[in-house]
Design a protein that fits this description.
This protein is of the alpha/beta class. The chain has two domains: 250 residues, TIM Barrel (Alpha-Beta Barrel); 73 residues, Arc Repressor Mutant, subunit A (Orthogonal Bundle). The strands form four sheets. It has a nine-stranded mixed sheet with strand order 9-10-8-7-6-5-4-1-11, sandwiched between helices. Strands 12-13-14 form a three-stranded antiparallel sheet. A hairpin with a 4-residue loop joins strand 12 and strand 13. Helix 1 runs parallel beside helix 2. It is globular. The relative contact order is 0.12. Bound molecules: iron/sulfur cluster. Iron/sulfur cluster binds next to loops.
Length: 379
Amino acid sequence: MSIYVHIPFCHSKCAYCGFYSVAGTSMRQEWLKALCCEIVTRKTEMGEESIHQTIYFGGGTPSMLSPQEWNTILNTIEENYNIAPDAERTLEANPEDITPTNATLWRTLGFNRLSIGVQSLNDNALKASKRRHSAHEARRAIETALKAGFTNIGIDFIIGLPESEASDINLAEQLLKELPITHLSLYILSIDEGSILYKKTENGTFTPPSDDAEADMYKEYCQMIKAQGFEHYEISNFAKPGYRSRHNSAYWEQKPYLGFGPAAHSYNGSDMRKWNIANIKKYCEAWLNSEASSTTGYEMEILGKPDRYNELIMTRLRTSDGIPMSLLHSQSFIEYWETNRRALQKYLDMGVARIENDKLLLTEEGWLISDAIFTDLFC
Ligand code: SF4
């Protein structure tokens, strides 16, 4: 069982960003009240005795919260939920917020994992993406986090950003050689509707790299990152031994989680997903008016067996652990697997999928065409 808290504020909006967040600090007080109300109200939803193994603050920009806001939120969680003593407690942070004071505060608050949005080490790409830090500042931020006592530090990179260059990979390699980073997420640029890059792509002022160019970059980065001692354990994620993200792994293993805050998603681990409204004002109105919260605060979906089979394919095949054949042959899924398994032969013949130790797995080449594979295997 896991807890996710979505912090919907950012200092400003990055050019590629399609996440729900707003720039600025308006409605912070109402949001804090509504968030705490939601946290308290939902405490019995997945059983009051549940023990949470991971807590993850994402966004948005959680690193911009004040000490008072942290105390209020964390106290509310601790008072209402059972958190395992060895829980993984992750905070997403932007380099510009990682000062010695903040990093020490986060350690004091119990965070034991930091996920830093580096995105690129090319200053032109950072500027074109409207990031608020330089490559040098990103490096300094990692060093500051290390000095404050963080030993589990993940960084994010995006390939294909405007103004990025083929040689950027050398800067990334240098960083991984010099600093004890334990986790790396590597994303291929996606042009999300509503983002600044979406508008630029529409009006022709930005042309994203071709699929082939992105695939070549992805493969080159994968080789380089693995050569630095990282295991490629999910399409976009790499970890040093023992440092896989426990929180994200819980998503891919379809374990239950509670998501708090505007736009946060929750899953009961079997047949129900729900997601909060992606609008701070409406979120606050809903949770500050308890009568409204059950009807206007979130939407939900009941998953039938075919949906759950499709989710199994989509989430487990993203990981290097793949899908145990015993799950595909289980009573719940055998009917859908029998109907769709013929589509797999083509991918086994191409060498992009394999069955090994009684598990169905995709290779890195397979992950690059995973959308097509998933679609063929879906019922
Ligand atoms: S990428 Fe992160 S920091 Fe930038 S706007 Fe999106 S959520 Fe905020």
